[in-house]
């Protein structure tokens, strides 16, 4: 996929863009972050977390119109820069840095030509994490309905069929109830109905992306021979269809 295709797929919540990033960029991302920062024995888990956080920020920037494709490879460059800033914040929180370390890391942060602002301030990140917990606390059927609506862009009649509801009106009523459950729990942060809708949409998108990234992580751990077998099964299924 080209960078323009990746950005378009992310805008449309098409999982193919994220799969391409995971399968073609993650290894290079991990290599750069691992060479730039010293995490010690927790390196593998730390880099996995940093990759996930960086993908979440990349999605936010693309959907917020803060990222444009300037050249081929700029998606990877942006992702790595976000990763470096995220890693820097993580290390600085864990222990005081010496002046030499600060200088070395700062040079590494600015070695790429593409400038990337700090991923998220602490207050915004804390709010997002709270809203993510709110979303995970509402009933599973509400989570599924909201994902189908905000992530998959399914129409209400199709959502009704998926969830076994009577019709589109029933699905719409259930959606409103699910939104109310979310807003009741997070009322302190949600100043208006319009803001609440944006907050729910963003929480749904983060939850769906985390789920997709976890699926890709599990996929990457499957032995190559098993992956080849799965791919063959998929092709056979496509032929039958």
Question: How would you portray this structure in words?
Answer:
The structure is a single chain. The chain is an all-alpha fold and 241 residues long. The chain has two domains: 3-109, Orthogonal Bundle (Rna Polymerase Sigma Factor, Chain: A), CATH 1.10.1740; 122-238, no CATH class. The chain contains twelve helices and no strands. It has helices at 3-11, 15-24, 26-36, 43-63, 74-94, 99-109, 122-137, 140-151, 156-163, 168-185, 193-220, 224-240. It is globular, with a radius of gyration of 20 Å. Residues 225-230 have low confidence and may be disordered.
DSSP strand count: 0
- Strand % is under 5%
User: What separation lies between the terminal Cα atoms?
Assistant: 25 Å
Radius of gyration: 20 Å
Q: Count of DSSP helices?
A: 12
SSE order, one letter for each helix or strand: HHHHHHHHHHHH
The tally of domains stands at 2
Roughly what percent helix?
Answer: over 70%
Largest sheet descriptor: none
Mean pLDDT metric: 83
General shape: globular
Look at the helices and sheets and give the structural class.
mainly alpha
Notable characteristics:
single chain; 241 residues; Rna Polymerase Sigma Factor, Chain: A; 0% strand
